[in-house]
Design a protein that fits this description.
Blueprint lengths: L1 H16 L2 H15 L1 E8 L5 E6 L4 E5 L7 E14 L6 E11 L3 E6 L2 E7 L7 E5 L16 H23 L15
Antiparallel strand pairs: 1-2, 1-8, 3-4, 4-5, 5-6, 6-7
Length: about 180
């Protein structure tokens, strides 16, 4: 049909531009480890759509109050490190870039001061939110590693117990008072 003839080549061009294999691998990794995936879809300086995998630990989504599957806006707070050479000698300076994306525009703040604003014109929030494993009643997904944490704690405790036993038997120290060397075996 006509829609497929126009859409599929355009989507393939976007996938090629954004390195489909690497992006898909990053998405699978992020979903499996963190439980959630956030992909921003924004035009770059050439107007081509750039897909960016944003680590969920930096993202605060605002969900629709009724339709919990719809994200109204997101706030991305990413720490950045720079070299401040203004004073005597170079010092590392830590800052925060806050990006707020909604259905009309993208605003970026550096340490709370607006430094970039652009209307994207999509009339939709250009963010795709994917839950790895849905949890009933939760807005977020479940990590593939969530069930391993308790097993890892138990394993660590057992290994510590075994290590303590081996250390005791490998180098025992006995202190004896009032005993002569001839009496020791």
């Amino acid at each position: 049909d006509q829609f497929s003839k126009q859409t599929i080549p355009y989507l393939n061009k976007i996938w090629e531009y954004n390195n489909k294999e690497l992006l898909s691998y990053e998405m699978a990794q992020m979903g499996g480890i963190c439980g959630d995936v956030f992909i921003t879809i924004l035009p770059d300086e050439n107007g081509t759509l750039k897909l960016t995998n944003v680590p969920p630990m930096f993202v605060t989504p605002v969900f629709h109050p009724i339709d919990r599957n719809k994200v109204l806006s997101i706030q991305i707070e990413q720490p950045v490190r720079s070299i401040d050479a203004s004073g005597s000698g170079s010092q590392t300076k830590f800052s925060t870039i806050t990006t707020i994306v909604d259905s009309l525009k993208v605003d970026q703040y550096l340490d709370g001061e607006l430094f970039f604003r652009k209307e994207h014109g999509l009339r939709e929030i250009p963010v795709v939110f994917i839950r790895n494993k849905p949890i009933a009643g939760s807005l977020y997904g479940k990590s593939d590693l969530s069930s391993i944490v308790s097993l890892q704690k138990l394993y660590n405790e057992k290994i510590t117990d075994i290590s303590d036993i081996i250390n005791y038997h490998a180098a025992p120290v006995t202190i004896a008072y009032g005993v002569r060397v001839k009496q020791l075996q």
